[in-house]
Fold this sequence. Notes:
The chain is built from eleven helices and eleven strands. The chain is of the alpha/beta class. Strand 1 (4-9), helix 1 and strand 2 (34-38) form a beta-alpha-beta unit. The strands form two sheets. The chain has a seven-stranded mixed beta sheet, with helices on both faces. A four-stranded parallel beta sheet has the order 7-8-6-9. The model has no long low-confidence stretch (mean pLDDT 96).
Amino acid sequence: MIKKIAILTSGGDAPGMNAAIRAAAKTAMAKGMKVYGVQRGYMGMLNDEIFPMDGGYVSGIIDRGGTRLLTARCLEFKDPKFRAIAAQNLKKRGIEGLIVIGGDGSYHGADLLSKEHDIKVVGIPGTIDNDIKGTDFTIGFDTCLNTILDAVSKIRDTATSHERTILVEVMGRHAGDLALQACIAGGGDGLLIPEMDNPIELLAFQIKERRKHGKLHDIVLVAEGVGKVQDIEEALKQKINTEVRSVVLGHVQRGGTPSGFDRVLATRMGAKAVDLLEAGEGGVMVGIENNKIITHPISFAWDGERSYDFRPDYELALLLAK
């Protein structure tokens, strides 16, 4: 049985990471395991920022955004010699299992650690982008979506008052999940996502048709993976006569108190990760599919297929935008 595990968060922060840390730590302690925290992700592992974690460390953090363990990028971790140093920092403490909470890049590091250094690693998908294959939802996505919806409601007040078309750029990296679901849930009037063709002529046509029907403002959700919203704004101005503005929501989308959904999801995933380590499993990721916590090999995150079919929701969003 594994007696010592470590927990780290890596990559971009996401609301709910603290709930996952808390659940994993408390579950492991209840099973008699000794738990270590790694500060600043893989960079902290490389720099030996590893410390014993007790119940007090994770007390009162379930409702806090960000990550108690801190996070950082670590380009050095792509080099095998630096991964070897990081792995040795775990092994000298007798740590046999590692829980990595993060996104795609974090998973690549976890996969290499597992294969190269015989450390049992379990990945938990923590990213607002919802771009990890093998899970319907990632930790932080729901909270981020609600942050966007709050912003859209405020922006609509100005768009309505000034009869403007406002393009709202949201995060998501190369995925359009946030923009798509924000458009549907926020009553958006247009949508640009990287998974679908987005000719500027179609958007211009939609806006002109809305004006014909007496609609005097537009909120268009733009996924950052489509391109710079300022460039889209300039191109759109050449095709319509209405006033156009653009807004980049930026990093405000990452912060804030995690939603109830994200807290429960993170808690279930954190507990499951410890159960897997207890059973001697490693090189796997935790996910949720059809409301059931499931597992896949970590490599499924980049080799597998996403189960989300964008087209039905995309077509629904465009229908409702008329």
